[in-house]
Amino acid sequence: MTNHDEGNARATRPHARKSLGQHFLNDTRILGRIASAVGAGTGDTVIEIGPGRGALTDQLLRRGATVIAIELDTLLAARLRQRYAGESRLMIVESDVLKVQLGEMVSGEYFLAGNIPYYITTPILFHALRRPRPARAVYLVQREVGERIAAAPATSEYGALSVNVQALARAELLFNVPSRAFSPPPKVESAVIRVTPREDPVVDASEEKQFREFVIAAFGLRRKQMRRVLRTLWNLGPEAAEAILASCSIDPERRPETLSPAEFAAVLRSRLTES
Ligand code: SAM
To answer: Do 137 and 40 fall within a single domain?
Structure first.
């Protein structure tokens, strides 16, 4: 695209659709840092969620990657097709990302990237943690959500979201992005996170659903001691609750907000083998 074409495209741009979380990132330096954090180059495939006007797509293509870009907005998808006509390393899929089986779009290893729509951050995160999982995923998210995803036990941000993501992946908060870097600027601050699926997740496929529900229920009682949490959630007597915790070497007075993902998994497994 020439500067002239870009100028024309800008002049006829439709308004951002807030209902689709459309805040377009304009800062090339930040876009470059996001693409570098993905770390995909020639021969690699990146699935990009919500390419919008193609700002991050450009950076991923520039690094030599093949990009499969999933965009829900019909008008934006059509414009991307027009803009990148003849670009053999880009495939544009017009769809709701939550309706696409991501790992089945690629044979072999793939990466994920996206300045994702904030209204569906959590569903996207867990959708992208289904098997076959990406080698690495880099997302631009609402800062407060990014802090919760990457939080360590016994901090105020640590909760069910932290445990459920970290049970399957390593989560890192990479850097903050101010609202002024977007057009239109969102009302909240943003941050870039990297989620790297673990080779040895603390739960296996058959346990995931039960684990997620257990963790969410336990954090519903986050101020209670674990012995009380287990008694309440599983309708146990005091001895049974304490026996489960003892078998995992967990002090019954600890509260859910101090347990690591591996400890939650151990408690659930102990319960399942005893019942
Ligand atoms: N990547 C672009 C950028 O950095 O400027 C746009 C980011 S904007 C925050 C989010 C994008 O996700 C928008 O283009 C929006 O239309 C798209 N989107 C919203 N909901 C979606 C969904 N369910 N599936 C796929 N794309 C979606």
So the answer is: yes
Question: Is this structure's pTM higher than 0.85?
Answer: yes
Q: Distance between CA 257 and CA 15 in Å, rounded?
A: 43
CA of 52 to the centre of ligand 1 (A): 5
The lowest-confidence range among 6-15, 37-46, 184-193, 225-234 is 6-15
Residue among 26, 259, 22, 40 nearest 163 (CA): 259
Nearest CA to ligand 1 atom 18: 50
Is 143 close to ligand 1, i.e. is its CB under 6 Å away? no
158 CA distance to ligand 1 middle (Å): 27
**Residue that terminates a domain, selected from 197, 225, 258:** 197
Q: Looking at the structure, do residues 153 and 222 belong to the same domain, yes or no? A: no
Any atom of ligand 1 within 6 Å of the Cβ of 50: yes
**Looking at residues 231-236, what average pLDDT do you find?**
98
pLDDT tens column, 35-58: 999 999 999 999 999 999 999 999
Q: Whose CA is nearest to atom 11 of ligand 1?
A: 50
pLDDT of residue 3: 41
Same domain, 225 and 166: no
- Give the pLDDT score at 16: 84
